[in-house]
Amino acid sequence: MEYMSDKYKAIIVDFDRTLLRTDKTISELTLDVLNDQKNSGMKLFAATARPERAITSYCKQIHFDAVTTLNGARTITSDAVYETSIDTKSVVKVLDQLYDVKGNVISMETGSGIYSNVDIPLWEPEVVEDLRTIAEREKVYKILVSHPDKNADDIKIDLPDDVYSTIAEHKLLQIMAADATKWNGVKRMLDAFGISSGQAIYFGDDNDDIECIRYCGLGAAVSNAIESVKEIADVVIESNDDDGVAKFLKNKHLT
Q1: Mean pLDDT for back-to-back runs of 10 residues, the chain (255 residues)
Q2: Cα end-to-end distance, the chain, whole Å
Q3: What is the pLDDT of residue 21?
Q4: What is the DSSP letter of 167?
């Protein structure tokens, strides 16, 4: 039998709706399997839309070798931190349009934390009436937008050429610098350890995982992933709530 560990050297996981259960916990099975993989010599990487402060507890449970956060805007390896912020003029152009629509809930991930135009209890942002004043003095890694009466697809703005947008869980519009992608973050993590993309397994569920699933040696989508992700994945595994990542790794003789 050919063991997958003969080919693959890195496991890369998205957090929400992939590694994490719906209640945002990591199961004991998943912890055991990932720790076994690390002990066997496999490198463990995380690729998430979350900022570092929102993954601290998970990184205490699983000692990742590197992480890429904020959809690739910040990548942290053992010996370097890579940052890709949005140009200040582009931030202001985006915010000008967002403020023209009544009801938009706007937040920004910056070098000093998260700011929002209204309170978002789950995220605990600093509330600032006009976020453009923050953009003039802070690095902005990511702009997030939702609307109580609209789907994210219906939030229309004319994006500057140096940014792009993606939609998370069908409800949250995310805007980043053009080079701030999960795939670019994944490449930086792999390069730091001399691992090729063909030697990596990637697990994901949403739009910002598509490139990684397509270009890694094996791309896996959880069964609760959006359809466009499942369509391009090499394999569809069990859902996040059924420990799909852990069961796949355990059953494929990676150790």
Answers
A1: 68 98 97 96 97 96 97 96 97 98 97 96 95 95 96 93 92 96 98 97 97 98 97 98 97 63
A2: 13
A3: 98
A4: E
Compute the chain's Rg from CA coordinates: 18
Counting every residue, how long is the chain?
255
Write down the domain spans for the chain: 4-83+181-251, 88-177
Q: In whole angstroms, what separates CA 70 from the centre of its chain?
A: 6
Q: Dihedral through CA 212, CA 214, CA 218, CA 220, nearest 10?
A: 80
Structural domain 88-177, CATH architecture: 2-Layer Sandwich (3.30)
> Can you give the pLDDT at residue 3?
45
4-83+181-251: what CATH class?
A: alpha beta
At residue 253's C-alpha, the angle toward residues 249 and 255, to 5°, is: 90
List phi, psi (to 5°) of 215: -100, -15
Q: Which residues have C-beta within 8 Å of that of residue 127, sequence separation ≥ 6?
A: 115, 116, 117, 118, 119
Helix (H) or strand (E) holding 243: none
